[in-house]
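Q: How do we represent a protein-ligand complex in a form that can be generated token by token?
A: Start from the inputs.
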Amino acid sequence: MELLDNLKDIILNANSFQKSKNYYFENHICSQTGNNIKVNLDFKLSNEDNDKIMKFGVCNHCKKVFYYYDFESKSF
Ligand SMILES: [Zn+2]
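Then emit the structure tokens for the protein with zinc ion bound:
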């Protein structure tokens, strides 16, 4: 349930969405604090059908969600 709760919390409370330039994290000047905040893209959503993945994370201060699209590299 924890992951589902995480997902619901992030998506339902999202203030806005912004494409990240990085697979792992995004630095942004937070509108809430005025500080440069590093947001780790801790979560990964994957589509088994087309191998697309979306990494995402949220700034806990301003609730802006950063996401990054990629393709899963399959190891055979
Ligand atoms: Zn922020």
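The pocket of zinc ion is lined by residues 28, 30, 32, 37, 59, 61-62, 64 (CB under 6 Å). The chain is about 15% helix and 45% strand.
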